[in-house]
Amino acid sequence: MALQNINPTKTDAWKELTDHFNEINEHTLKDFFKDQNRVSDFSITANSLELDYSKNRINQKTMDLLVKLANQVELKDAINKYFSGDVINDTEERAVLHTALRSTNEDEVLVDGKDVKPKIQTALRKVRAFSNKVISGKWKGYTGKSITDIVNIGIGGSDLGPDMVVEALQFYKNKLNSHFVSNIDGDHVSEILKNIDPETTLFVIVSKTFTTQETITNAEYIKNWFLKSASVFDVAKHFVAVSTNLEAVTSFGIEKSNIFPMWNWVGGRFSLWSSVGLSISLSLGFENFRELLDGAEEMDNHFKETSFEKNIPVVLALLSVWYNNFFNAETEAVLPYCQYLSKFPSYLQQAIMESNGKSVDRNGEKVTYQTGTIIWGSVGANMQHAFMQLVHQGTKMIPADFIGYKKSLYGLTDSHKKLMANYYAQIDALAFGKTKEEVHLELKTSGDLDKINKLLPYKVFEGNKPSNSLLFETLTPKSLGNLISLYEHKIFVQGVLWNIYSYDQFGVELGKELAKKILKN
């Protein structure tokens, strides 16, 4: 069964939220924090994650009404359909089952009447066996040498997810060097080929149809480069594929035994948990890949089983709708205080904006309200010296997610202490700002009496800027799985609330079609 069609703006909860917004809009975070229980009342702990959402422009009535909205759009029913294999990607007539890829429970998940779990487990066993063979050095190239480098060839979900995860978990990497080719810009692939040896490199081509223009162009170019020093019979030792198009893959020269499956019930931007994650398993070892899956499943269980009031993905999605649709905030910043997560905002841009960048509802009618938010961000503390000026003193409201870790991986405690001091300072500065009185006293104390009148307006921080704090113990494959899964479910909840289809992406097709026409002319 498909998702129900419920226009959120026609619900009682939406009307009540509109009235409530007018009541609460003049209140500030300083007003809210007169309540000494504010932080404990607006915090949730799940697994190794602590969410503090107290620095949002909300009170308990706000959250009660937002949860009422979730109930009135039948979110619980949607969640059940999401996990059970119902065809919720109605426009493409597909189930949406990235959650099944990491599930270890005994429950069946049926697609067209057949349980998909056995296929998933078979694929994972194949990924594990292959990864172990390459990492151990038993897999040999055409001259008998072991593999030293892995090159993932893909684009979109076949690149952004694996690339982000390998970058994020490089602390756990093995001896293999990892590279990612995505852009059809020939300079991208050329730079990577400069640094690898055809005798010791394994290429992983990831393309569901094996027809994606960017991926196949790069794959063909790399194969021709490879054949300058090897024969066509050697292709099988250096190229493997993740695809459904067996005929195209085998004609490329890849052996059937080295083709890993993909399924149409997994969207590309949610596919890193499948065989698309082969490059992750090769780079980190299968045990770490399994830990990543387990972390995602932990968040799946929290999302599926927890009441909306204490459900982290639901709460974050409700807050996003609150700002997007009532405060008219168009963007959200994702700010990891962790250098390893430098590619995480880019990964989320595809996951979120390709999913919820829709202007037609599930009735096929044009929406009359705002949907997908614009996602952007960078790592702290670098971004404090870049765009945070606009967030603090600009004219736009920009809700922000701050992602932090209590412990660093290399144990540089002094550096980490300073990093996290900045983490907390930015959150507090956004929330509480600096008043005219505080600036006046500061200038007076510093002896700048003659400059007070001139500088005063420039040094005031209005504050009242909303943010969430997502705090983990440390960065591990499991906690990263938690984090990615959290945002996947937030995307789903937003789509349900906005009454749109989150899992098609027709918007990426027109440009590709026109590019093909231009090439023919």
- Helical percentage: 40-55%
- The strand order across the widest sheet is 1-2-13-12-10-11
Gyration radius from CA atoms, angstroms: 25 Å
The major pleated sheet works out as:
6 strands, mixed
What CATH first level of the largest domain would be assigned?
A: Alpha Beta
The CATH architecture designation of the largest domain is 3-Layer(aba) Sandwich
Question: What distance lies between the first and last C-alpha atoms, to the nearest angstrom?
Answer: 44 Å
CATH superfamily of the largest domain, by name, is Glucose-6-phosphate isomerase like protein, domain 1
- Give the class from helix and strand content and strand pairing: alpha/beta
Q: What fold name stands as the CATH topology of the largest domain?
A: Rossmann fold
Tell me, what's the shape? Answer: globular
